[in-house]
Protein 1
Amino acid sequence: DQQVKQNSPSLSVQEGRISILNCDYTNSMFDYFLWYKKYPAEGPTFLISISSIKDKNEDGRFTVFLNKSAKHLSLHIVPSQPGDSAVYFCAASERGNKLVFGAGTILRVKS
Amino acid sequence: GAGVSQSPSNKVTEKGKDVELRCDPISGHTALYWYRQSLGQGLEFLIYFQGNSAPDKSGLPSDRFSAERTGGSVSTLTIQRTQQEDSAVYLCASSFSGLQETQYFGPGTRLLVL
């Protein structure tokens, strides 16, 4: 029972263009969402988060959008850079509960 | 400052053997988590330690898996009688306090059971 789904296993984008990574969830009780980024042979690192009371959170080139009615969130990276090439994990939790992770999306930014 | 460290970075073992994986959390972090990432899968929660509270073991897949955290710092994940399906990357994370804090991950231990 996958509560957090990242349906695109991989994404390829040209440098300078926008990268859009998508994530769907099934548990309507989730109220906190995060994106983690992972390079090979390293652990995931926290990127950006959003609480369910918001529908958008922005941090530099990274913006996360939350659509609660659709149980969908997305991560936008603008402009994409080759150093953004990594695996991106979406995660969700109910306040006070453990994180549930998606399977990840491999992003490749071509120069 | 030092991040979360894990050892060994790679471990190859034979089916049926026991293995121990170690995690050194960030100094001062009271919460520690173990996850597993199998090929093509997301991070699967295994166990969570918070201070002196009883650990949340709800993610451990079988009784062959156990973990302890000594002195509120270093943690060891033990897998007894390993099976091939235990092959995965085992990730440890720590956070300053509880589940609401950002988790900082170690580089993981890649376990291969032959």
Protein 2
Amino acid sequence: DIQMTQSPSSLSASVGDRVTITCRASQGISNYLAWYQQKPGKVPKFLIYAASTLQSGVPSRFSGSGSGTYFTLTISSLQPEDVATYYCQKYNSAPWTFGQGTKVEIK
Amino acid sequence: EVQLVESGGGLVQPGGSLRLSCAASGFTFSTYWMSWVRQAPGKGLEWVANIKQDGSEKYYVDSVKGRFTISRDNAKNSLYLQMNSLRAEDTAVYYCANIIVAGRNLVGHLSWGQGTLVTVSS
């Protein structure tokens, strides 16, 4: 099965900083990648699909890129409400594996 | 408004069984693929299973194959997860979620329930 590896596992940044999270697939998955945000104590929220397509209603400071085995989620200007754990997920075929998550905190 | 409400969780001994239910409303349930996703306490998300609109296709993570069965009743707008031979490592909050389509592709889990906690312990 294809493994999904996120880095870093956690990060701390200041409000207004540009933040980038990386997700690597152990084999190529084209652009069949989604990103989710899970705030503390909340259910996951669907952010991005097809590696770079923003789900309706998601703030434009979020963006995704990549294809094949290397993907990134970028927050262009970190806001306090962005404190959360972010997960990537492959969906090209079963199993729809998630990355292990990246916890984003405010410095 | 889309609502997904899970039920059926609880404390069960290792080797035991539970049946989770997810009641859906606010969208045309019969036209959506559906999923179960779980999250162990303090851990990350783990996809468990998917089921096609008519139940004709089902997919599972390896760790639950042969023990868990996903099913649905479109007449009742309900999704189920029958869990047998439960193990301590199955302890988690179990979420049901619908799967969004873009073009002709399934692209991710759009709406999520609040989850139901399953604890496997003696």
